Amino acid sequence: MIYLIYVILAVLVVLCSTKLSAYVDALDKKTNLSGAFLGGVLLAAVTSLPELFTSLTAVLSLDEPQLVQGNVLGSNIFNLCIPAVLVLSFNKRYRQSRIAQSHYNTLYFGLAMYVCCALAIVSPFSVSLGFTQVNLMTPVIIVLYVIGIRLMKNDDSVEQEEESNLDLSIRQIMVRFVLFSLALVAVSIALTQVTDRIADALQLGTTVAGAIFLGVATSLPELSASVSLVRLNNFNASIGNVVGSNLFNFTILCFADLLYQKASIYILDGATLFASQVGNLLLFGLLSSIIMIVVLAARKSKAAVQIAAVLILASYVASIMLSM
């Protein structure tokens, strides 16, 4: 019964996120904001709501900080599998597409955040914010995210001239956007509770449970949005959604570190970084991000894109197998 509930909640996540993606796409075409910013920041933040609220629930309600690590890092690796599958399935369309330069910057900032997470684990150093203690890397990651947003906001390297299919005013779009966002939050919190019960039933570690069940389920919004955008022949926004979501996901660790009062969010239960499930997720997440840069840079080469995409998929499978 618990598995059926998990599937139902996952379906609801997809339905809510599909509607949200449509509204954000309409804002893209009805406003003067850059497509890179809307896809990489606004749409990315919307589709990352499940990761955010499930992670906050994990630390505030379940007292499972490692579930947060598995959720965020597992989602990031799975997210990159989405464009990998899409470029394999629509290789010619992808090679003919135009990609915003800011997507490269987003991936570079993501690499820096992976390094920050590793440093937070191997060299834990806390700083006081007056009302709480956080790891030094937490404010560093926030600063990196803010800089990344500014770069996306000013990127007009790819222009879109399509008109929206939604016959709604901007205000009507925003009202619906808020309502479906609230629905997505409620479903995400329930999904966290169910995942914790599945982890107990299968006797899985909380990190790997987060990476498999929670990481995949909360990445369904990115999957739904990306597939929809590719159908609209908009690979640029599709990739922006994924890499922007990955960047936003790192800030979730920061929020969790801020709210988790018992200890730092970057804990390993006595294991060393390179012998832990978290270490595997960090390593393969870093590797997948580097390969994704190759997918973008070698866009005109069919063979190079296909090989790189397959390597991203292999990286995800390896990360799960080695974390079991």
From TrEMBL:
Classification via InterPro entries: K/Na/Ca-exchanger, NaCa_Exmemb, NCX_ion-bd_dom_sf
Keywords: Membrane, Transmembrane, Transmembrane helix
Gene3D superfamilies with a match to the protein in the record: NCX, central ion-binding region (1.20.1420.30)
Chain ranges passing through the membrane: 6-24, 36-60, 72-90, 102-122, 134-152, 173-195, 201-220, 241-260, 272-296, 303-322
Boundaries of every Sodium/calcium exchanger membrane region domain copy: 4-145, 175-322
Recorded coiled-coil stretches: none
Keyword Zinc part of the UniProt annotation: no
Topology in the lipid bilayer: Multi-pass membrane protein
Subcellular location: Membrane
UniProt KW DNA repair keyword: no
PANTHER family, per the entry: INNER MEMBRANE PROTEIN YRBG (PTHR10846:SF8), SODIUM/POTASSIUM/CALCIUM EXCHANGER (PTHR10846)
Protein name from the UniProt record: Sodium:calcium antiporter
Species assigned in the record: Massilicoli timonensis
